Amino acid sequence: MLLLTGNYAGDVMNFGLAVQTLRAEGIDARYLAVTDDIASAAPEDAHKRRGIAGDFPVFRCAGAAAEQGYDLDGVERIAAATNAATRTLGVAFGGCTMPGAESPLFTVAPATMDLGLGIHGEPGVASHPLPSAAELADVLVKGVLAECPDGAGSRIAVVLNGLGRTKYEELFVVWKSLSALLSDAGYTVVDPEIGELVTSLDMAGCSLTLTWLDDELERLWTSPTDTPAYRKGAPTTAAAGSRRTATTAVSTAASIASADESGRTGGRFAAKAIGAIAARMAEAESELGRIDAVAGDGDHGRGMVRGSAAATTAARTAAENGGGTETVLAAAGEAWAAKAGGTSGVLWGAALAAIGRTLGDNGRPDDATVAAALQAGYRALTDLGGAEPGDKTMLDSLHPFVAAVESGVDAGQSWRAAWSAAVEVAQKAADATADLRPKVGRARPLAEKSLGTPDAGAISLAMCVATVAGLFPTERSETA
After folding, report:
1. Does residue 114 form part of some domain?
2. Known catalytic residue: 399?
3. pLDDT category of residue 479 using cuts at 50, 70 and 90
4. By CB distance 3.0 to 4.6 Å, which of 63, 163, 280, 282 could disulfide with 205?
5. Of the listed 120, 128, 300, 399, which one is catalytic?
6. pLDDT at 445
């Protein structure tokens, strides 16, 4: 498995942790960060450069290699070769506004542009007078051609990328001048792409990406593809994808067949709990977004709604097909991680899967096993995210909740009684995060602004455990 992202600290950390996790499970995993942004570091420090619109050709060629049957070493080689052959320079005419925010992350002075922007809403590294379309084309072409790789040929893939608020008509006006300049410089353009391919919400601006092609990269760049967001040519039957789907189906069917009646009862309750959480998140979406927008990007509520809704559908399907607790929670976790977006989705997915593995598909777990499952979910989050209690994250609510459940069970309480009593502990801990300064994530640079506002992830976690506790009387009647 090869994981690819732009070269941003958060991505490098999280995907590096993912590689470690996969390798620990016996899966050969690799990671490569794209480094195409020539404005973000000097050539001698190219490994420090950000990945911006150059992500597109790197992902495109690596994906084509995988589709054509290259082994993992081959796909990794293609990704590295494409990255080494790719250069990008971008400009911004205005900043982007994050969801839930009332103003852009940065502003560009009238009649100027920022040169060397980032795709995560970062401003440019230098300000320049606003040029005409032809002058802009000249700035972009000269800047990128100045970093032509040694030994590169004359055939190039070109991406003129809009950042979210630049009209296609304007892009094509710039393209007219760009294409003439590249032709005059002796280059042959191969299947150019003009449009919004790597955007930054509503940022006004564009970027030019060139990838110098050899015969192999050109074949991959021009190959057909069919994805939800990008289609080109006439795709062939994806035999490998069919095999993966079949393998997954067989694995899921085997898990369902192995569940006994007690496990299936647990699976039905797990699906009901996920559904109740989804309903609660839908009610709390605006509140969670408001809290998150104080020192974050304001999307936590939306992410929790998307993730829990997808998890509900997956969990119900697995339960209706006879899945046990582990199978249902695994399906829910996978869907939550896939659909939520952002860090919280991946973390919730990992936690649900870890809890499910401890509970299993057979039998009715005793009180100690349920407490151990919660602890496994907590460990999955710390191992994956690298955060600790006190960092102002969901762990600041989850850790005391899990500890309270374990303490109650150790004292002789049933897991339901211990869970119900721990709900108040989780809520108080979530509220107390208002006094903490964030040490990880997007809120970290705005630590002072965050003071006085609780962490949205901790608040949503407390809501979720309280929602599950509200189902216990029903669950007792169903499983007595």
Report:
1. yes
2. no
3. very low
4. 163
5. 120
6. 43
CATH number at residue 283: 1.25.40.340
pLDDT-derived band of residue 448, with 50, 70 and 90 as boundaries?
A: low
Residue 273 inside a domain? The answer is: yes
Residues 193 and 91 in one domain: yes
Final residue in a domain of this structure, among 236, 253, 280: 236
- Based on the structure, what is the number of domains in the chain? 2
- Residue range(s) defining the domain that contains residue 47: 2-236
Q: What pLDDT, on the 0 to 100 scale, is given for residue 232?
A: 84
- Asked whether residue 253 is domain-assigned, the answer is no
CATH number at residue 12: 3.30.1180.20
pTM (predicted TM-score) = 0.57
Query: pLDDT for 11-28, tens place per residue?
Result: 887 888 889 889 999 999
Interval 36-83: pLDDT, tens: 999 988 999 999 898 999 999 999 999 999 999 999 999 999 999 999
214 and 358 co-located in one domain: no
Is 21 found in the same domain as 103?
A: yes
* Residues 404, 320 within the same domain: yes
Higher pLDDT, 340 or 324: 324
Q: Based on the domain organization, do 200 and 311 belong to the same domain?
A: no
Written in H, E and C, the secondary structure of the chain is CEEEEECCHHHHHHHHHHHHHHHHCCCCCEEEEECCECCCCCHHHHHHCCCCCCHHHHHHHHHHHHHCCCCHHHHHHHHHHHHHCEEEEEEEEECCCCCCCCCCCCCCCCCEEEECCCCCCCCCCEEEECCCHHHHHHHHHHHHHCCCCCCCCCEEEEEEEECECCCHHHHHHHHHHHHHHHHHCCCEEEEEEEECCCCCCCEEEEEEEEEECCHHHHHHHCCCEECCCCEECCCCCCHHHHHHHHHHHHHHHHHHHHCCHHHHHHHHHHHHHHHHHHHHHHHHHHHHHHHHHCCCCCCHHHHHHHHHHHHHHHHHHHHHCCCCHHHHHHHHHHHHHHHHCHHHHHHHHHHHHHHHHHHCCCCCCCHHHHHHHHHHHHHHHHHHHCCCCCCCCCHHHHHHHHHHHHHHHHCCCCHHHHHHHHHHHHHHHHHHHHHCCCCCCCCHHHHHHHCCCCCHHHHHHHHHHHHHHCCHHHHHHHHC
In a domain, 18, yes or no: yes
